[in-house]
Protein: Amt family ammonium transporter
Organism: Acinetobacter calcoaceticus
Amino acid sequence: MGVLRFLLVILMVAISSMTLAATGWSDNDVRALNVAPDFTLLLLGGLFVMLMQAGFAIIEGGYDPESKTFSIFLINYLAAFVGNILYSFALFLFCFLFGDHLHQFGLPFQSWQWHFFIFYMLMATTVTMVVSRIIPRNISLLQYWWIALFISGVIFSALSRWVWGQGNEIEGFLRNLGFIDFAGATVVHSTAAWIVLAGYWVLGQEQQELIRRKDVMFSDYKLLSMALAGFILWLAWSGLNIGYISAQRIDIQDVVINTIAALSGAVIMVIALGIMTKQKISFEKLIKAALGGLVAITGCGGMVSMSSSLWIGAVAGLMVFILIEQLKRWITAKNIVDVLVIHGLCGVWGTLAVVFADRSTIVDRQQVSLLTQGLGVLVTFVWSMGLAIVLFKLVHWYGVKMNPPIQNKR
């Protein structure tokens, strides 16, 4: 029975990986998608996603020294590696069974399609990494794997198709409407935040008490480690945003400059607010502001000017400074509040800020509008939050079934 369950999990990995890959190609596709060097940047951007995982791991350690960081990385690595291997097998099997559609795949697989496949797969690991902080520590590795597969294979997979298309002539409905999310402010970061919110709401009072005990960030964690995490994420975010310039009239230097400008704007805003309100600005708050600025600029990247990037980051810093304290009135878990503001709300703000983009950088797209951007944000919230509630209710039900509560004896 254990072997059958393991094989079923492996099959789920393969299926979830297949959903993230492009399914067709033609000469027109390649010309429309720009030139090969851009796709090399896309592949390198995927590698920067893995570098981001190192930064997030250090931050996760600050919240809970006893967290399942090893298990989380093990799950992500296995899903990526095994998914790569089994996807190739499933691809040839599909072509063998449906020979009339061989021209849609092309054998051998085109290099630019592999770039998209690897990039989207690695982006899915970012979502599961952020969501991991809401997962109960008493669940098994297999249970968490099922959760990660559902998040990456269903929730993220559908959103990535709707917003970014498949890298060929087939595009998602949000993309066709004109919705733009340059590098995942909504598709990745806000999605992860809404899933975390659903988990916090569903898993019950006992799990929330456990989460509250995990909030040890910066109290006894080494300052050097947090500084290292900040620099790693700064570097990785710049490389990640560069990876998204494929098929867009955007220069690499614009992406890097705007990333630095947004981060700087967020930090400067927090410092200025601290001076005006006569509050002591901790290193913790500066790091959070920097992360908020990075998430916000992810939505528009090199599509805005440097001055716009500065105030986009500044608004993100303002949100971090004010909203984190305000949300603590309703959500007592500190790390959950951080996720909702930094990844969720700053991601929404960065996506809405696309309306200030330079129109010359928008290729073959309708006029971008605040209404369209808001619709994309709303669809993302309803889709990710709704499915996550169902997912975590199943997790909670299974946990109660396998570990029934013990009645206190009087």
Summary: The two ends are 41 Å apart (CA to CA). Residues 134 and 196 are 6 Å apart (CA to CA). The mean pLDDT is 70.
